[in-house]
Specification:
mainly alpha, two-stranded antiparallel sheet, 5 helices, about 5% strand, elongated
Length: about 140
């Protein structure tokens, strides 16, 4: 029995301003597994239609912020704290103050890491110089 193309079930129209996991995966160039991980961590909460996840504009924005935070060195726990503090009805002063505190901590950590790298570079140069001197002395002894 051949199937008639008109017998196929019509695809449900997509809700306006919603996204599938594939949409977000493509847009942000991340795997669907990563998105499901953020969902498992309680950072995203899509609506479910059967097995399908439907992400809202809020979920999309949160994902964008998670990824931006990740690039800036934020842990998921730090991102969660900021998301949990957000209350559009009472303003965002508390959230912004917390964000500034976290940014200051990140900057201090980066300053310390920069200092540590500079110290390591100096130590590497000193070790290289000692090796070079030892090599030259070894070669000079062989020539004698």
């Amino acid at each position: 029995m051949t199937s008639n193309p008109t017998d196929a079930k019509p695809e449900k129209p997509k809700r306006p301003n919603t996204y599938s996991i594939s949409d977000l995966s493509r847009e942000f160039d991340i795997t669907t597994r990563a998105i499901r991980f953020y969902e498992d961590q309680g950072l995203l909460s899509p609506v479910r239609e059967g097995q399908k996840r439907i992400y809202s504009p809020r979920d999309r924005t949160l994902l964008k912020l998670i990824l931006r935070g990740k690039r800036l060195g934020f842990t998921l726990a730090e991102s969660r704290v900021l998301f949990d503090m957000y209350d559009p009805d009472s303003g965002n002063e508390k959230q912004l103050l917390q964000f500034l505190r976290i940014l200051d901590e990140k900057e201090a950590l980066l300053d310390q890491q920069l200092h540590d790298i500079e110290v390591m570079k100096i130590e590497l140069k000193e070790a290289r110089n000692r090796c070079q001197v030892a090599l030259e002395e070894s070669c000079a002894l062989r020539k004698e």
